[in-house]
Amino acid sequence: MDGPNALILAVIGVTMMLAGYFLYSRFLAKKVYKLNAEFKTPSHEFRDGVDFLPTNRYVLWGHHFTSVAGAAPIVGPAVAVIWGWLPAFLWVTIGTVFIAGMHDFGALWASARNKGRSMGALSGTYIGNRGRNLFLVVIFLLLLMVIAAFAVVISGLLVSQPTAVIPTWGALIVALLVGQAIYRLRWNLVAISSVGVVALYGLILVGDRYPVELPEQFMGLAPEGQWIVLLFVYAAIASLLPVWVLLQPRDFINGIQLFIGLGIIYGAVLLATPTVVAPAYNQHVPEGTPGIVPLLFVTIACGAISGFHGIVSSGTSAKQLDRETDARFVGYFGAVGEGLLALGAIIATTAGFQTIAQWEEVYESFGAGGVPAFVEGGASIINSGLGLPAGLSATILATMTVLFAATTLDTGVRLKRFVVQEIGQIAGVRIGTGPATAIVIVICAALTFSQGADGAGGLTIWPLFGTTNQLLAGLTLTILTVILIRKGRPFLPVLVPAVFVLAMTIYAALVQLFDLFADGEWLLFTLDVVIIVAALWVLVEAVIAMGQARRGEREPEDDVALTPEQRLPLDR
Amino acid sequence: MTLLAGLRARLRGVEAGLREFYVAPYRRTFARAQRDEEDLFMMLVLSEALGVPNPASGTTLELLPEMLDRMHQWHLRMGMDRSPFEEQLACC
């Protein structure tokens, strides 16, 4: 049977997500979150020009989207299409519309209604003292997973796609120069952006001509292991440098690159209209592939529902929200943007191959496809759509993915350093920046080396990362439900997904527990036990907090509750 | 000519948007770093009053009126609910 045309898939997916934005988010805004344009958002109430600053909603969406989107919505779907394109497609589209959009939007709203405080602080308020500690535990786990998983992804990609080596490392030099051009030479930003993008694509051309491969063995390490060492050295330095030197210009280039990449992928699909060769539902999954339920729901985290977005929504974006009504566009549409990236990854990995046999060869075992399949499949679509040579297209996609993943990697190291310092503070020990970074690097490198140093590890850790991410999402949704119950609003649109996400998380963690035990992966086994304990903890706290909220008094609605000082004139 | 002017205005708009896109994510990081430095400077200015010998006390004394506005925020940030110089410099 012939598969459907990828263009149809793209059109249906995009239509569903847009319908979600225009219909479902409207319902959420009116009935559930009851957005009030008159509400004085934290950006106005606490305006200080530092953290709190009213920001144009399109600019805010731009930041929000580029902060939440990265390599994860590419990696997850690229692994998960092994079960066939239909389950991944349905989970990404339905998940984005009913869960991710609602979650990101809700986290933004909840934070804006609570003085722009972060989800961690809100969990303290709404769940109790233990809530904060629980949150810290989950964040610690999530960052550990994200750093290790992305280091494995990057090192694997640099080995399988040696043409991407020069552009990815060269991009750092471009970023350094961009930073200098802005702060020292004070160039015009239009000029800088153009020169930066041209330089990056120039590097891609150079890299395409001159692939770089590391020696087979160096100090007893396979190439994957050598890259992992180099990546951690890089991440340590990058997270310690002043931000204007590297991180700021690099984020800027990546942000632009994200829009260019999305344009290239969807443009190529539009022109090439490739046919999906992968089966809708894969009846012959390779030996060792775990069951689709629950693993699908944790393999694709970002792109369907990701707890990490709650961290960005609360705390950062919420403090810059101009009008409360902007939350719908910034939060919900941010999730839609990420869903589109995930959809692009699904199309590339299922329609980018000539025959089903070729596809099955790539997806010969669970975790075997992944990002290299995205690069290969996407390249062949770009090749037939835009006419670029397949090798060059592959280099472009690989470079893009590595840059996204590397951003997440060093941001992760930086954030984890803060978490380590915070834990030290709770324990009464002051940990300096240097030692804290060293602790982070040692822990993460240890976990990474147990996974991918010889290149044989594949992506065992990926589903575990997804599980932690969903756990965080479940925690955020729980807090949202408690807030809604207290306000006497309809809470089922939040509670039902929360129950689903938490159930799948615990189920998946248990399934993985048995697999990891059977494989003798003791490090991951221990982490999984910690995840299960944390998940059960979330569940218990959630039930207690919801019960208390039901018995408590209802909070009054805005027309009664808001004092004149808490109102923002509609015409300014 | 109007076409050129319109184009120039649009280019300025793009430039402003890009600048915002560049600056905004790290605005708070920079503002915080600046605030930390100013906190240190405040301590230098107040060092004589805090009991630390200050070789440039003449200069810092001159700066004192300039810094007084920020005194209240400063002692709150430093973890002191009340001004450390209640008799001389009561601010809250």
Secondary structure category of chain A: mainly alpha
C-alpha-based Rg of chain B, rounded: 22 Å
Largest sheet of chain B: none
* Gyration radius of chain A, in Å: 23 Å
Shape of chain A: globular
Keywords:
heterodimer, A: 572 residues, mainly alpha, Amino acid/polyamine transporter I, 73% helix, B: 92 residues, 5 helices, elongated
How would you sum up this structure, described in words?
The complex is a heterodimer of chains A (572) and B (92). Chain A is mainly α. Chain A has a single domain, classed as Amino acid/polyamine transporter I (Up-down Bundle), CATH 1.20.1740. In chain A, helix 4 crosses helix 16 and helix 11 crosses helix 14. Chain B has 92 residues and is mainly alpha-helical. In chain B, 68% of the residues lie in helices and 0% in strands. Chain B is built from five helices and no strands. The termini of chain B are far apart. The chains are: A mainly alpha (572), B mainly alpha (92). The interface between A and B is medium-sized, with 24 and 19 residues.
Which secondary structure elements does this structure contain, and how are they paired or packed?
The complex is a heterodimer of chains A (about 575) and B (about 90).
Chain A (H helix, E strand, L loop, with lengths): L5 H27 L9 H4 L11 H12 L3 H9 L4 H29 L5 H9 L1 H32 L4 H19 L5 H21 L13 H18 L6 H26 L19 H8 L8 H6 L12 H26 L4 H7 L7 H17 L3 H38 L5 H20 L8 H27 L4 H28 L2 H30 L6 H4 L11
Helix pairs in contact in A: 1-5, 1-14, 3-14, 4-14, 4-16, 5-14, 5-19, 6-7, 6-19, 7-10, 7-17, 7-18, 7-19, 7-21, 8-9, 8-11, 8-17, 9-17, 10-17, 10-18, 11-14, 11-16, 11-17, 12-19, 12-20, 14-16, 16-17, 17-18, 19-20, 19-21, 20-21
Chain B lengths: L1 H22 L3 H19 L1 H4 L6 H11 L3 H7 L15
